[in-house]
Amino acid sequence: MFFISLLRWLRGTVTFLTHSRSGRAEQFFNLCMQQRIPFWGCRPRGLELEGRTTPSGYRQMHPVARRTGVRPRIQKKQGAPFLLHRYRRRVGLLAGLLLAAALLAASQQFIWVIQVEGCSTQEQVQELTAALRELGVHRGVLKRGIDVKQVQQRMLYQVDSIAWAGLNLQGVTATLLVRERVSPPEKIDTDLPANVVASEDGQIQRLEVTDGKAVLQRGDTVRAGEMVVSGVLEDRWGMTHLVRANARVIAHVPRALEVRVPLRQSQASLTGEVIKRRYLELGDLRIPLFLYRPIQGQYKAERVTRPLELFGVSLPFSLARESYLFYETQEGQIDEEAALREAEQALARQEQALFGEDPVIRREVSAAVEGEEVVLRGAYLVETDIARQQPIAVEDRRQQQNQRPRRPSGY
């Protein structure tokens, strides 16, 4: 529907009225249809019929109107031909339109939008965008000056966190498609013997021994640093072997957290004053669309950038809007309930950061007011893996033999 409206606007549209009292109007439209004269949008308006046609179609209607005795009257003229005819003597306006069209066509040969897809964090997006800039891919660069294959290869050498990169140039947009590198697990020297010890105090609930010999059992209480699985094994012939013990030691571990919230705090309240500033950005060039005056006071800045488009075509310009929200800072006394809610939120964040996905078996929280602070203390019993490998100090006999002093005889 949009393209039909656009074509009609380019060709021009004439809106006309015809009188329908004598019944000649219906004959008029039937003859126009037989002679393939374009018209559309016919509808009654009182005792008259309204219709639309093209400028050439309106001229072709005159012989038909004389035959039927109908006199169409023009009500409105719309479209590009009438607009150009109205401003036909304004050469500067026509030259400006032609120049704008030429600049718009020329701008399609440059890159104005940079997109990165396949990243999980915003920091990595910024890193890859900076790497593209170093390789010559940035806003305002000529598309034919970009060697796509070379950029893809150099991205792999320049950024270690990606395993594959592909650069697509479409219109005024450069899209970098990446696949993140999956780091292999850290290599463990299995030839180095070790014991499994407890990383913290707890009560053992489950032992999953892969290598080694369990020293403790389920239900035993263990201290931090105490051995749980031994890497020293003895076979049936009485020979001792050293292995690297490996196990999961699931235990109930007591944990404690504490949060303190002062009752007297600095509070920021918005004053309602807002200053908005707009910029027209072309690459690294920023054109202010306001009269400059210095900003004084405490404020919080917000920035929104919106690319500009014309008929679905990305323009080289983008519109940036900056909003400055002013606020005042005041020292105030908050009530205990508000401080307690703030402490609970802080305690929940600490629990998520410290415990993660470990199940909490028991949770006891107590609150108290100590001086000018609300103190929230939490006592927990968490089920977690407390296994930690501790290497066994072993002397290398071959190295000792190589370090023995030689006798004067050479033996």
Helix fraction by DSSP (H/I, runs of at least 4): 25-40%
Count of helical regions = 9
Q: Point out poorly predicted stretches.
A: 396-401
Major beta sheet, specifics? 5 strands, antiparallel
Write down how many β-strands occur, each being a DSSP E stretch of 2 or more residues. 22
Head-to-tail CA distance between termini: 102 Å
Category by helix and strand content: alpha+beta
Q: Which strand-content bin applies to the residues?
A: 35-45%
Mean pLDDT: 85
List the helices and strands and how they pair.
Elements: H1 2-11, E1 13-19, H2 24-34, E2 40-45, E3 48-53, H3 55-68, E4 73-78, H4 80-86, H5 91-107, E5 113-117, H6 122-134, H7 148-158, E6 162-170, E7 173-180, E8 194-198, E9 202-211, E10 213-214, E11 221-222, E12 227-230, E13 232-234, E14 240-242, E15 246-262, E16 264-282, E17 285-288, E18 299-310, E19 313-333, H8 336-355, E20 360-370, E21 373-385, E22 387-391, H9 397-402
Helix pairs in contact: 2-3
Question: TL;DR?
Answer:
The protein is of the alpha+beta class and 411 residues long. Helices cover 27% and strands 43% of the residues.
